[in-house]
Design brief:
Layout (H helix, E strand, L loop, with lengths): L3 E4 L2 E4 L3 H13 L4 E6 L1 H9 L1 H8 L3 E4 L2 H9 L10 H15 L2 E6 L2 H14 L4 E6 L8 H10 L3 E5 L4 H9 L7 E4 L3 H5 L8 H5 L3 H8 L9 H13 L1
Parallel strand pairs: 3-4, 3-8, 5-6, 5-7, 7-8
Antiparallel strand pairs: 1-2
Bound molecules: uridine-5'-diphosphate (UDP).
Length: 240
Amino acid sequence: MKNKVNILGLDFDKTTKQDMINTLKHKIQHHKKTFIVTANPEIVMYALKDQEYMNTLQSADHIIADGAGIIMGSKLLKTPLPERVAGFDVLKDLLDVANEEALNVFFLGAGKKVIEQAVQNIKSEYPNLVIGGYHHGFFNEHDPSIGEMVKNSNSDIVFVALGFPKQEKWIAKNFDTFAKGIFMGVGGSFDILAGKVKRAPLLWRKLNLEWLYRLITQPARWKRMLVIPAFVKQIIETKK
Ligand code: UDP
């Protein structure tokens, strides 16, 4: 069985969240360096306009379907993906794994106060997890000291919250220098971990309406939703 589904040039993993977590656990145990991208329609549409970003995403080991739009797109293409695998859920499950197995985790990104608060919350919620290090996300991208700090932490998992496309570009640029680790861009997740931004309640998420909740609670983001119709149009054109 083919285990990838191509959507507008990106090979998405045909996986449930649980299978993805099991795969990652296995990779961590074997120190297998891994780059994971969680992509939504906005990211796909951005990559179609930025070839360097497209190449970066294509270099990832796993691309997971973070967004109801991607699932819808896979259905339109008659190659349905099993379920939405939200980046934030993968992050939370990996924090649980890290807590169970006393793994070393690095947190890079978000504002200084946000990352400090997020790390404090993580320390109390996941007491066995080892904080390999953390740093806010407003540094000069050409500053090599950040990459060195991450490398020297020898972390099992590195979460990078710089927003897209920055976070994936940063991971790809530094990937070869790291000896091991699971590297994943996590967008605004640290803002949620710090308690600054609330996630949609479970029922909304189950109904695939997280996007609507975000739209209502963070109306400034509404413009970002405008890419969805363009994404669907592009899928339909590809089908023809
Ligand atoms: N951010 C950062 N450095 C930057 C730009 C953004 O650390 O140079 C952080 C920002 O503070 C926020 C996250 O990256 O915590 C972006 O969140 P958003 O929800 O906008 O992510 P996206 O959906 O764009 O991936």
